Amino acid sequence: MNEMFNLQDKIAVVMGGTSTLGSSMALGLAQSGADVVLTGRNEDKANSILKEIKQYDVKADFIKTDVLQMDSIKEAAEVIDKKYGGWDILINAAGVNSSTPFYEIKEDEWDSIMDVNLKSVMFTCQQFARKNKERERGGSIINISSVSSITPLTKVVTYSASKAAINSITEFMAQELAPDNIRVNAIIPGFFPAEQNRKILTEDRVKSIMDHTPMKRFGDPQELQGAVIWLASEKAAGFVTGSMVTVDGGFGATKI
């Protein structure tokens, strides 16, 4: 069983790897033996996370990347292809949110959120998958969605729409990339307090979330690691593609 979840000698790339959830998933992959490459904009924060990763006797690297710049995404894919000969696991964890009321949302804010949460994921997958296809090397892509992709949440209409679209392109890419032995799945986290959503967690909103969550608590970022490791493992999840794995304390199962 330990061998089934052993990711030793695998190359895991975590886009948005300096975020709360991204860094936790990176640490989980490292604990399972994967060498980890973080991407993001904050080099100081990345270096701190790299120190933690290296405690597990794996290789750790950082590539400064701006997911709003298509050339930056393409360059990251090329660097990883040349330096490591491709990748085995690709996590798309970059994301932004906003609590701007519906009638006050401006076009530039809509575009900015969609660019980070959706456009960057689409073209990251395209660039990285193309490199592995050329090498005839498969892989596992894991997109990070949200419970708001299934149950649209008040106050975060743009975010909800972007994550619903993530589910759609995940299913599309699962079909498109299957012939190249690249699996594509999504994890749907519930409420894991992080930089992008703390500002909208007012007392009333927290009460509403707890009333709708059977487990009556927020998730801990470490509780995403098991789902990530499972989907990353070819031995454990080799026949799993196009799936949405929900980790939400029962939020999505509560209908009344």
Task: Describe what this molecule looks like in 3D.
- This protein has helices at residues 20-31, 43-54, 70-84, 107-134, 157-177, 203-212, 225-232, 234-237; strands at 11-15, 35-40, 60-64, 89-92, 139-144, 182-189, 244-247.
- The chain is an alpha/beta fold.
- The protein has one domain: Rossmann fold, CATH 3.40.50.
- Strand 4, helix 4 and strand 5 form a beta-alpha-beta unit.
- It is globular, with a radius of gyration of 17 Å.
Provide the descriptors you would attach to this structure in a database record.
single chain; 256 residues; alpha/beta; Rossmann fold; seven-stranded parallel beta sheet; 8 helices; 7 strands; 43% helix
